[in-house]
Every structure is written in C-alpha cells, then in structure tokens.
Amino acid sequence: MLIEAGVDCFRLNFSHGGREDHARRLAAIRAAEQQAGATVGVFADLQGPKIRVGMFADGQIQLKYNDVVTLEASDEPGEPGLIRLPHPELVHALEEGDILKLDDGKMQLTVIEHGRTQLKARVDFGGALKNQKGVNVPTRRIPISALTDKDREDLSYALDLGVDYIALSFVQQADDVREARALIGDRAGIISKIEKPSALTQLEEIVEASDAVMVARGDLGVELPPEQVPIAQRRIIATARAAGRPVIVATHMLESMVDAPTPTRAEASDVAGAVYQGADAVMLSAESAVGRHPQSAVAIMDRIIRAVENDNEYWASLSREMTPPQDTTADAIALSARHIADVIGCATVVAYTSTGSSAIRVARERPRCGVVGLTPFVETARKLALVWGVRAQVTEDVHNVEEMVEKADAAVRAMGAADVGDRIAVIAGVPFGRAGKTNMIRVLRLE
Fold first, then answer.
1. How far apart are CA 292 and CA 260, in angstroms?
2. Tens-place pLDDT, residues 285-309
3. Number of Cβ within a 10 Å radius of residue 370
4. How far apart are CA 34 and CA 57, in angstroms?
C-alpha cells in the first residue's frame, strides 16, 4: 500500500480523466486512509490556462531554422507558414523581441513584427509542430486569469468532493490567488504552483496569499534557462519557509522509475537536494501515476528523505539558513518549543491546534524530534499531512491542563512517538478551545 510505503498526500490531476474517475480515486484514498489508521491529504490540481496552438489542416507543419512564420488570432486551421492561435489575448500582449517556446521547449520563435491581429516571428530552432501543442511565453506576463471556465467547474466539483487543497496552475501574480480565495473561502487550502517566471517577480506576495507553494519544475524548466531552475527552486523554498508556508518540489524527481526499478544517482541527488534546501514535501508524478513500480518509487523516495534527515549536516545547514520568527506570541512559543526540545532531548513536540497554524509554526522551526499535531478536526489533520515533520491525530478538544496532559501522553504513546521515561514539550492555548491563542509550553516526562 502506498500509504504504508510513505505517501502523506495524494494529487488528483484535473488535466486528465473525468470527474467520476476523480470521485472513485478519492473514495479509494479515503478507504485506504481508514485502513492504514493515518490521515492523508488530497489536493485537486487544476489544469489552468494552458496556451496551445490551434489545429493544422494537415495535422502539423514543419518549422525550419530562420524561416519567418505568421501567428494569427483565429480558430481556423493553420497551414505551412501560418500558425493559428485561439488566444487573441496572447497575440495582443506580445511585442517585438518576445520569445515563444513550443511543445515543451522543443521549438522556439522570436517575434519580429507586431500587427493588430497577426504577428511575424522568426524560427530560432524548428521541428514538426503538431496540433494543439503547448505555447510558453517566458518573456511576458499574459493578461489571462489563472482560472479558466473549466477550472471553475472543476474547482466547484473538487470542493464538493471534499479535497483538502486546491492547486492553482500558472499563477502569475498574487491577484490570481486572491481570485481563487474568493471562490474557495475556507473550504480548502490553496497551493500556488510557481511555473511562470513572471510569478518570481511577485513571489513574496504570492506566497503570503497562499497556504502552500509548489516548485512546479515542468513548465518552469521550459520558460527559464536550465541553469536558472535550481536557483529559482532554492529561492522559492527559502521564501516559503520564511513565511511559514509548506513548500513542495515537483516534476521529474525519479522519472526513470516510470520503467526502471531503481532511480539514477542524479535523481537520488535531486531528491536529496530538495530536502537539504528545506522542502516540506517532494512529489512523484508519472512514476506513481502510470509507472511500472509505484510502490518502489514511493519507498525509495522515503528512504532518501530519511537518509538526509539522519545526516548531521542537514540540521547544521537548516540552522544556518533559519529565518527570524515574527514578533508574535505564537512564533515565540514555537521557537521556544524547538529550543527546549533540542536542549533537553525531547522525543517530540506536541501542538494542540484547531486550524493547523500552531503545528505549522513549530514545524517551520524544524525541531529535530518532529511534531505531533492534535486537533479536533479531521480536515485540519489532513491539511497537516503536507507539512514537514508533522504527524497529526484527531482527538477531542481539551478543557483544562490535566486533560491536555492526559491526551498528549496517550497520543504520543499510541503513535510510537514517545515511551516511558521520555520527555515531550506540549504547546497549547489558554483558554482552551479558542483558535489563535497559543501561549503556553509545558514539559512532561512520561511515566
């Protein structure tokens, strides 16, 4: 079972499959979750405004180096020398010198002349351009919403299914996230996928408006020069960590395992590098969706993560790159909990949390012992599945300190997080039962 192999969160890719398929998969995930006795998260990954060329009369055209082709805003079929784009907003936005990358970067054009409904572009490197291949524009922000009509319908359906997060594709600015927030409210968290260079110019604002962030290296790798992708990844991770937002690194992590039973050394190093940089989660795509060895891919990724987190240099590098907490009581408590846990060797930090915020704040500080999140809400527990080092358990709310101690003791023993003689640090808010009031630390020794 994938959950037993190490999966904490599943992705439903709304770029593929029908709604009934997603409903069946979600039902299967929830059944497996119950069988495993764990809480796992699920996020719906919306397709987003993927820009594509139109159809061609012969199914494709041949682009040759240094030829000049015409780009026209139209739904009619294209022909040799003429590419039709069913996206008039793209034609209007482009200017001379802008670059278009076609079919995941296999071909490239440079705009040399701008007209009202047509563009002229030079072929920088060519090939066979087939029907409805993707178009990436790394040099300009395209004035289109991150939510298409299809996305809005899929979003409504995914929320009714009860997913924990909605992943927004092709986010370009913080307003894209705010637009989605107005539709989603508090029914699910928002994961902003950073896959456009234009998003990097508003990175801090996008992260602040989001509940989590994904380094989506597929399209980001098409639109950025390859040497810039690792730099962007590191910056995105650092920005998310500073803001206390979980961050996922995705795409081509163990790609060879679609067919092979083991990854390449380069792939193992790639996964390890993301963990060393401070990522909360690393994601498999084709390896587990259509690959021949899904459980092995999960297990190997889990082993790589555990190996890195057993390396003292990992903890030393995290300490060097730790960002200062905000001047709030909750951040001060979280930082203090990490210091206490490290100094006296606590087996774990227990965070009582209604919304998940307290557990996320402690996880941001990276206590070596990890975090147990206790919450009365299964929805919160599932959202915490995406957060570094957090194991969440649903428990009834507590009403006094004695009950707090009793439930924390029982939970960590049941989860195997601590045993007789171990010390644990517990953070909570007084008065109990009120969100956003984390203001207390208590150290317990299990007897």
1. 8
2. 999 999 999 999 999 999 999 999 9
3. 19
4. 52
Q: How close are the terminal C-alpha atoms of the chain, in Å?
A: 35
User: Among this protein's residues, is 11 annotated catalytic?
Assistant: yes
Catalytic residue among 239, 251, 348, 353: 251
DSSP per-residue codes, 419-431: -TT-EEEEEEESS
Rounded distance between C-alpha atoms, residue 220 and residue 169, angstroms: 11
Closest CA to 263 of 295, 289, 285, 296: 296
Residue that the structure tokens 């087996």 belong to: 347
Which parts of 250-376 fold into alpha helices (H)?
A: 265-277, 286-289, 294-309, 312-320, 329-344, 357-364
| CA distances for 269 relative to 258, 266, 272, 317, 325, angstroms | 18, 5, 5, 17, 30
Distances (CA, A) of 7 to 11, 41, 44, 63, 258: 11, 9, 16, 43, 17
Instruction: Select from 186, 185, 199 the least CA-distant residue to 146.
Output: 199
- Cβ of 179: how many Cβ atoms within 10 Å? 15
Catalytic choice (11, 196, 245, 361): 11
394 φ, ψ (degrees, to nearest 5) = -85, 125
List the catalytic residue out of 52, 130, 368, 413.
52
Kindly tell me if the per-residue pLDDT of 165 is higher than 90: yes
3-class SS of residue 119:
strand
Structural domains in the chain plus CATH codes: 2-48+145-317 (3.20.20.60), 60-136 (2.40.33.10), 329-445 (3.40.1380.20)
**407 included as an active-site residue:** no
| pTM of the complete model | 0.93
Dist CA 102 CA 136 (whole Å): 6
Structure tokens given for 226: 């390859």
Please write the tens of the pLDDT for every residue from 110-154.
999 988 789 999 999 999 999 999 999 998 888 888 899 999 999
Q: Considering the chain, what is the average pLDDT of its residues? A: 94
Beta bridge partners of 43: 11, 165
Tens digit of each residue's pLDDT (9 = 90 or more) over 434-445: 776 788 999 999
Distance separating alpha carbons of residues 263 and 254, to the nearest angstrom = 6
Beta strands in 315-418 (DSSP E): 348-352, 371-375, 390-394
| Gyration radius from the chain CA atoms | 24
Residue 138, preceding bond cis, omega within 30 degrees?
no
Please say if 193 is a catalytic residue: yes
- Which of 84, 193, 241, 383 is the catalytic position? 193
